[in-house]
Structure formats: C-alpha cells, structure tokens
C-alpha cells in the first residue's frame, strides 16, 4: 500500500499574539509536523511565532488581517505563493484573511488549486463580510452552537459542507486536581496581597463590554454584603481601544467600595495556575460564545465553572457540569445559584471531555479527505 500523501497546509489568521484561535492554529501546525506534513502559517506575527517555529512549522509575516482594500490587493501575490509552495490545503481562520484567501483561490485553475477550508470560530455579525467564512469547500464549526448559527443565518450553506469539530484541551497539560507549587503561589500573592486567604472567584477573558465584567462587579458586591470572604479576580488584558472601558471598570469598582475585593491582574501567561487556585470560575458573556475554551480548561482541572446557559459555554456545561448553568435572563437567580455553589460546591466529574487529540485527528482527517474528494467547479 502506498504511503499517504504528505500535505502542505497553509493556515491564515491576523496575528499570533494570544487567544483560542491562535492556540488552535499552533496545535494543528504541531500535529501536521508530527505526521510528517509541511505546516505553513501566515500572519502579522506576534509572541507565539517562536513556539510555532520551534515545533518545525514555518511562519510567513504578511499583514493578512488588516481591514483595508490594500490587503485584498495582495491576492495575486498570495496566488503566486500558493503555486510556488505547492499548497494542498488553504485554511482561513478569520474574515479578512478569508477574503484574501478566497480571492487568490478563485483565480486559480480549479483542477489544481488547493482545497479551501474555513473555520467559523465566532458568532459573527450577520452580513456579507462575515459570510465569507461559509464559502469554504469544507466549513469547520467549532461547536454545535456554531453549526446552528450557520444554518440559521446563512441558509445557502450546504449542510454537508459543515463539519463540527469541537475545540479541545490536552488532558496532560490540564490534569484533574492539579495545583501550582508553593513558589508560584507565594509570588502571586506577593503581587496581589488582597487576594491572599480569600475565596477566589475568577472571571477570565479580555477586557471588553461583552465579557460580563459589570455583572461580575455587581456579583462580588452582593456576595460581600452577605458576609462571604470572597475576592474577585479579573484576568485579561485590554487593547488600546478598550482602555476607556477599563478605566470605567476601575471607577465602578472604587465607587462600589470594592477596591480591596476585586483585583485586575491584566494579561497573564499563567492563567492555568490562576484557574487552579480558584474556588469558582465564571463565564458571564452577555452574548453567546462560539465555544468557551477557558471554561473547558477549568473543568478539566476539576475547578467548578458557572456560566450563562447559552452558546458554546452552555453546550460545555450541559455536557460536563450542568450544576454550573446560570439563567442568562435572570441575574438575581444567577447570583443565588452562584451563592449555592460556593456554600455547597458540587464536584466536577473527572473525564476526558472534549480531548485535544480528537480535534487534531478530526481536522487532519478532514484535510486528507478533501485532497481525495472530487473537485466541484
């Protein structure tokens, strides 16, 4: 039997700084290299490039995520790149890169061009601009929530083109019951002394209006008034465009008399450690999320998570920890439920839920199936 064809796969995304899309890109690139394939990534760069290159993948620094007509004018240049590097799979993970990729791809010979894959990572606004994410020959949905969103809002998308491949977490990297060592704990609490010897409730996520920070501040205030020794951790950074909103949150905390009860940690590279020392992790996004990787990471560590019962977070909690489901239309009831979880915590079941290896295997299998599938126009 002939050896399977070795593939050249190009993934496009705006940058490689941080976030679930970026980590997923690295994970797929690493899996490709391990299988003997060639993994190429094109982005504006960022702090994760070093890890990518160390894994054996190749990075090409192009401004493929800039929202400008100039980006689309690179289509001819990208077309030459695809031909020169004999790319088999062209995988776009964000909207501007997807438009660029599609413009380059559609101008190529249909008999020899790469197979075109898109991943819908988010529940984007419904418009023609976002619709490009449904134009892949194969469209990966990162959850059943995303699949339902595509079919509802882009009904011209053929259902058989949509492949649900849940994001995953590596159980070896997030072992059940894991705790950080004493050295890390000492350093963390030296940096944030107000959090020491308190019941920690953590809200992870970038600083943006959609992540529920204002609900979190109100919740901590209510728990404090009930005499509970809680301390809230807001873990996530703010981009330059979100600095005014961050200042508003600071003001709101001070005005509520919670300056010693809520800590803003900023962007951290040790989120796993912070999740592991938390009594409860929250997901309070006002709009449904496509998946909720941090929710899954905390649960895999055995840390209870409570989150609004919509989107991908609701999907995860219904599968792994239904005790943590919160009504997203009744804040009083949500606060009451959180109080119950703190007073009488229900253990998180141990299990290999949403394993990373399944995501890797399914994605690489899809690539290989596409290269063998008949071409349609």
Describe the structure.
With 377 residues, the protein is an alpha/beta fold. It folds into two domains: 178 residues, Glycogen Phosphorylase B (Rossmann fold), CATH 3.40.50; 162 residues, 3-Layer(aba) Sandwich (Rossmann fold), CATH 3.40.50. It has a seven-stranded parallel β-sheet with strand order 3-2-1-4-5-6-7, sandwiched between helices. Helix 13 links the parallel strand 12 and strand 13.
Please give the largest β-sheet: 7 strands, parallel
Label the structural class: alpha/beta
Number of DSSP helical runs: 15
Mean pLDDT: 95
Low-confidence stretches: none
Residues in β-strands, percent: 15-25%
Task: Show the helix and strand layout.
Layout: E1 8-12, H1 20-34, E2 38-43, H2 49-54, E3 58-61, H3 69-72, H4 75-84, E4 89-92, H5 95-106, E5 115-120, H6 128-131, E6 138-141, H7 144-153, E7 162-164, H8 182-191, E8 199-204, H9 213-225, E9 230-235, H10 243-255, E10 262-266, H11 271-276, E11 280-283, H12 293-300, E12 305-308, H13 311-320, E13 325-326, H14 331-343, H15 356-372
Parallel strand pairs: 1-2, 1-4, 2-3, 4-5, 5-6, 6-7, 8-9, 8-11, 9-10, 11-12, 12-13
């Amino acid at each position: 039997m002939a050896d399977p064809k070795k593939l050249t796969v190009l993934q496009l995304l705006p940058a490689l700084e941080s976030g679930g899309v970026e980590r997923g890109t690295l994970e797929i690139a690493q899996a490709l290299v391990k299988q003997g394939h060639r993994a190429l990534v094109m982005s504006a760069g960022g702090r994760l490039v070093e890890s990518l290159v160390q894994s054996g993948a190749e990075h090409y620094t192009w401004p493929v995520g800039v929202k400008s007509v100039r980006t689309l004018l690179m289509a001819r240049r990208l077309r030459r790149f695809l031909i020169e590097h004999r790319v088999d799979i062209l995988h776009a993970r964000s909207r501007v890169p997807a438009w660029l990729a599609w413009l380059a791809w559609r101008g190529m010979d249909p008999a020899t061009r790469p197979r075109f894959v898109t991943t819908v990572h988010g529940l984007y606004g419904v418009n023609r601009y976002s619709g490009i994410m449904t134009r892949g020959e194969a469209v990966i949905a990162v959850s059943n929530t995303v699949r339902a969103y595509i079919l509802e809002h882009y009904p011209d998308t053929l259902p058989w083109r949509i492949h649900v491949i849940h994001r995953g977490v590596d159980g070896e990297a997030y072992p059940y019951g894991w705790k950080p060592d004493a050295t890390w704990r000492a350093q963390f609490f030296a940096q944030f002394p107000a959090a020491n010897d308190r019941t920690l409730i953590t809200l992870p996520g970038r600083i943006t209006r959609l992540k529920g920070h204002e609900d979190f501040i109100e919740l901590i205030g209510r728990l404090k008034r009930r005499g509970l020794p809680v301390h809230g951790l807001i873990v996530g950074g703010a981009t330059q465009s979100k600095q005014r909103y961050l200042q508003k949150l600071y003001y709101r905390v001070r005005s509520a008399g919670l300056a010693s009860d809520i800590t803003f940690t900023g962007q951290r590279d040790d989120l796993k450690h912070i999740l592991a020392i938390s009594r409860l992790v929250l997901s309070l996004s006002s709009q449904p999320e496509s998946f909720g990787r941090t929710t899954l990471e905390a649960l895999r560590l055995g840390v209870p998570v409570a989150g609004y019962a919509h989107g991908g977070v609701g999907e995860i909690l219904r599968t792994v920890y239904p005790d943590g489901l919160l009504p997203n239309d009744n804040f009083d009831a949500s606060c009451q439920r959180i109080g119950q979880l703190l007073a009488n915590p229900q253990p998180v079941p141990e299990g290999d839920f949403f394993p990373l290896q399944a995501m890797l295997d399914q994605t690489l299998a899809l690539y290989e199936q596409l290269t063998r599938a008949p071409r349609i126009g």
